Amino acid sequence: MTVVQKAAALARSHLFSGSPPATLESLARLAEFRLLGQGEMLFLAGEPARGLFVIVSGSIRAFRVNAKGREQTIHVEGAGATLAEVPVFDDGNYPATAVAEELSEILFLSKADVQRFLIANPAIALNALRLMAGRLRRHAELVDSLALKDVGQRLGRLLLTEAQTLGTHDLNFSNQQLAARIGSVREVVSRTLARLAQNGLIDIDTRARGITILDEQALKRFAEDEV
To answer: Is the entire prediction scored with pTM above 0.90?
Structure first.
């Protein structure tokens, strides 16, 4: 990836959008390009954080694993998003493990370079604060969901959220992926999906790992425990 291409990718990112061209070019010259295959690890929870990652294309999933080996997805990010903002500021370790959900292009910026540019560019620092505040809100919603919602409600809410994000009622997830996103196990997700299908809320194509939302309003009521 050329410097010009890197600068263009940074300009499209949520953190660096709106930055002056000269700033983007300077950052681009420091950015390291990485290509990750599906399932390839970007960083491991507990490792010393070396810097910030900008997703150019593809998607990255951040998750934690408990003592029994069960995964809990913390968040999934796509093109334009950044990862590992918090340890860049608090000098801590990576708080979660991150892996590529698909072929993904990444730009890496060292902690020192990011900190220097944030100090010199207050607008970028404000962007960073907004992004971290938004992620904190989503984490609070995740805690609320895990603590106060049952598996069926969490699954319904996830399907609705993904449909809104992707702009389609046709979704493509494995039962294991869904289980990791809602803090459950594959077997429970399978039974819950079957129940939703029996009630006419969704349609399942097991061969293509496809889920189609048939009745959005009914699924919303289900997710909010109104039925």
So the answer is: no
